[in-house]
Amino acid sequence: MTLSFRSQAALMLLLTLPLPALAEPMHAQYLPPDELSVRQGEPEQQQLLQITDYTIVVGSQRQSNQQPIPITSPLSLRLKGKSMNKGATISEVLIHFDGESKSLKKPAYDEPSRTLTLYYPASQYRVLVDLLRNEKVYCQFLSYANGHVWADLHTGNVRAR
After folding, report:
1. Do the Cβ atoms of 150 and 141 come closer than 8 Å?
2. Does this model's pTM top 0.70?
3. pLDDT tens, 46-69?
4. Is residue 150 part of a domain?
């Protein structure tokens, strides 16, 4: 079987192209540098959601069985959207804001409810609401075999004004 000159040229060109070592996550450009090498290998799980709706919840609760009676006012965002990658099952993101703790809980994805739960300091509330009101926002969750997890909310590329 002989190949035409064009077929031979096309084959040679294909053979010179670099092969990707590992498939990167869909929105890898939004990940910070991995200076500590915690993202080892490909993610075991990737969830990517484009946010379409959000709800702000400001609560007030009193646990009447404790003395003195503490009153707390939890603040949260509930985000809904559409999955952006093949195999993604995420449908909702619940963000809790904490104004008092010195460390936050790690992001957690619950398969049965299809909900990703994130924890942010209360100081980030205004930033997140501003993004939701003014930009197209995505939520990304990655988990790796070594136990490392990453979650973020990010915009797409935005043109400077």
Report:
1. yes
2. yes
3. 889 999 999 999 988 777 776 777
4. yes
* Tokens standing for residue 116: 């990703």
- Helix H or strand E encompassing 116: strand 115-121
The total number of structural domains in the chain stands at 1
Q: Could you tell me where the DSSP H helices lie in 68-138?
A: 125-134
Q: Which two tokens stand for residue 126?
A: 């205004």
3-state secondary structure of 72: strand
Q: How far is CA 56 from the centre of its chain?
A: 19
Cα–Cα distance, 15 to 19 (Å, whole number): 9
Residue 161 has pLDDT above 80, yes or no: no
Q: Is 117 a domain residue?
A: yes
**Cβ partners under 8 Å of residue 84, min gap 6:** 26, 48, 49, 50, 138
